[in-house]
Fold this sequence. Notes:
By secondary structure, the protein is an all-alpha fold. The chain is built from four helices and no strands.
Amino acid sequence: MAEVIELMPRKAKERKRLEARAARRAQAVAGALACGICPRRCAYCGMAIEDQPGGRPEGTPYSLCRDCYEEYQAFLRREQGAGEPEAFWHTEQWAEMWRTWLANMRAKEAFRNSRAFFKLMSHLQD
Ligand SMILES: [Zn+2]
């Protein structure tokens, strides 16, 4: 009987530890998804956007600083079959970086719109 009594606090302590870890992980997920949607920060490089009051140049799905916007436009031209690269770093790896970044942003947006994410955010506000 004495052993049973001693086990209960240990189980409760372990459960609290696991709950705390889950809460930290939930915060990490929410934090990661907040990154890239602030209209005052470039979604690509993270720099503050000060000279674009709207924060999102026309035709761009995310807020980009002027330099990243120009790189994005160069990427679009390349994807549409433009001839010579506009800069020496506009390689296939560079284009793949843009493709995967855009895919990642779309995946984040889909998750942000999911029931699971809504439930997660509701849970964090409790
Ligand atoms: Zn940028």
